[in-house]
Structure formats: C-alpha cells, structure tokens
Amino acid sequence: MIFSLFRKDPRRVLIATLYKGVATASREPGLYASLDIPDTLEGRFESLSLHMVLILRALRHLPAPADDVAKDLTDAFFADLDASLREMGAGDTVVPKRMKKLASSFYGRARAYDAPLQEQDEVALAEALGRNAQGTEAPAIPLARYALAADRTLKETDLAALLEKGPAFPRPEAFVGGGVS
Fold first, then answer.
1. First and final C-alpha spacing in the chain
2. Count of domains in the chain?
3. Which range marks the domain in which residue 20 is found?
4. Rg, Å, the chain Cα set
5. Cis-peptide into 65, omega within 30 deg
6. Of the given ranges (43-47, 80-84, 156-160), which has the lowest mean pLDDT?
7. Is residue 3 part of a domain?
8. pTM of the model
C-alpha cells in the first residue's frame, strides 16, 4: 500500500511533460528578441498565456480524452503560477488575490484571441496581441503571424503526437520583417 504512493502516475507525467513543452516554447528567446514581447515578468506571463491558449484550442478540437488533458493542463498551468508567486515571496494571504487576477487576465486573453484565431483574422489578432502581449496600441503583426501559424500546426497534430512528442511551435525568427504569411 505505502509503495503505491511513490509510483509515478503516468497521466501526471504526460501532463507535466506537455506543460513543460508549452512553458519552454513560451520562453523561446526569439519571442522577446524578434517578436517584441517584453522580457519582463508580465511579458513572460503574456507569452505563457498565449502558448496555453494555442494548445488549449488545439485540444478543444480533438476527441476524448483531449478534454481531460486540457483540464489537467490548465490545472498544471495555474499550479505553476501559484508556485511561482510563492517562490517570489508572496504570502499565503496575497496569493489567492493574485491568482484570481491572473486567472481573470488569462481567461480574458483567451477570449480576446479565440475569435481572431478562429477566423484567421491577422489584423484583429495583431491588435489584441499588441495591447496584451506588447503593452502598446501598435498592432503586433509578426507575433500575430506566429500565433496563426502555431494555431494551424497544432490543429493538425493528433493527441498521441502531442503527448509523445510535445507541442511543435514555429521559430519566432521566421516571422520578422516580411515574415511568413
């Protein structure tokens, strides 16, 4: 009985690996150096949120158990945010308030990006990403192109490939200047 507590749950390992792939992609230096996401705490949250939105959109279009994977991945995302707040020294009384604000921000981004991604509307997505990810009123056209390309690629991936190989995101540098359309 006691030894079962020390066995790794294969599902948790898969979710942790998938989340690690999303988090790693969100920290790709080209997102900051080439696509102008500010390399700040807020910018890193925006990048992670964008990548989470993209992977959750892909999972939404896949058959079961993708919906369970999406729920577990979202739980892993918020657990990571909670742990990060605590690691930065936020106390037990402050963390719930900050988590509520972060959750509201994340779901707001998801709503703001969903329709433009669905419609493949580069202009609307660029405006939303400019406001949120870059903190400016200028449209983030290269970042929007990156997100649209990632959305297309992820939607072409089946659940087994996502879980085995992890999510594939394009290279940010490919979208600088004229970029990929």
1. 56
2. 1
3. 9-175
4. 17
5. yes
6. 80-84
7. no
8. 0.90
